[in-house]
TrEMBL record:
It comes from Lentilactobacillus fungorum. This is Uncharacterized protein. The lineage of its organism: Bacteria, Bacillati, Bacillota, Bacilli, Lactobacillales.
Amino acid sequence: MSNESESTKTMTTGQLLTSYGEAIKAGLDNGYQYVKAFDQLNDTTDQAELLAAAVQLTNYQLNADFVVFPHQFSDEDVQLIFLERILQLANVGNSLQISNPDHVQKLLCKFAALGDQTFTFTKSTKNTTGFFFGPTDYNRPLFYLNLATKELLFHGASLIDYFVVDLQGTDVADLKATLQVLLKVAEILKEHFGFKIDFNVLDGINNEFYKFAAGDVSESIMDELFVKSADNQFILMADQNGGASLNLDHDIQLKVYNMGSADRPQWGASIHDPDQKESFVYLLLDYPFIQEWYLDNKKQLGILSNQLIFG
């Protein structure tokens, strides 16, 4: 018999039914593995198992040719459930809660300190395992999360735009309480899961250098800070290289200076705080005159984030 005849041989009824049955079984088994991973995501108290379940469920191909499941959680939902679970295991689960658990698709969450403001994840268009977390009412990617590569990167511009500008008028204590939850998430992922974290404007480590987007800062912008500082009973001291330092409350000091050279300037700011709690975004919330100076000159003073991820 020729190869052509073999390839066009008609399948018998028995063979068809056997093939069909095997496809159904494979599809159902795939569904069982999906549910098993979700049970692990929902129930385990082991951190390694929790991360493994979330990674397994991200981009999971649940449907098969002969078995289609009409109600499925999205990849974005998986990230949000993981986020809620790690906070629960750290005994701070009441600070962030999924707000619509009765819905199967597109879960949202709320922070206890921000009332009805809702947040969710959105999948990156550049990386299928990367997701952006932000408020549903604004296009603000507050941070980027990739469970597969163990990365969490904060986006300075969006954090400032949202917490300083969009939520202007909200009690600063509530804003800080929410930012503390985000910091707690990063701390858990770093210490317990070995994630790489870029804290950006949330970094409170002394003398962390916050790079300004423009590279250079004009003399007029520095003069503006001198005037605003004086108007608020603070003295901005100039240094010999054109930079300046500003002594604030509780022995906190802000420095604005050039980390580059005259030919290749790279201006930015650093903060020294004895308690190492005052990050750049906290500084803007605590001192309205610095906030005004920053926002008036945001094009030049914007804090750089990872351009590959957020650019």
